[in-house]
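Entry:
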Amino acid sequence: MTGFPMIKHMVLFRFRPEVEADRRDALLREYVTFPQIHAKMRNLTLGKNISRRDSTFEYAFTVEFDSEADLRDYLDSPEHEEHVVQRFRPLIESRAIVSYEVRSGVVTDLFS
């Protein structure tokens, strides 16, 4: 299924200063293969922050799911535990995670 409503999952993060570029790049390369492992993921994006105004976070990761249940399946998966919780988080200095429902392509129904 694609379309609306959908769940958008967003992670903003900064690596610890001591993380070497090779290690960082290997983890990021692995991250972008997640839709091959988790069929319910779609429209994955990963990018480096280019803003000159705010450099709180270095990278942004977004992915979409058709439902909250699909997001929970991903978050509870052994692959998420092994890659994100055990290998990725220890290398992260700071992060912010937001998951939200999108009900239309333009405006969310925050006020209903």
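The longest strand covers residues 92-102.
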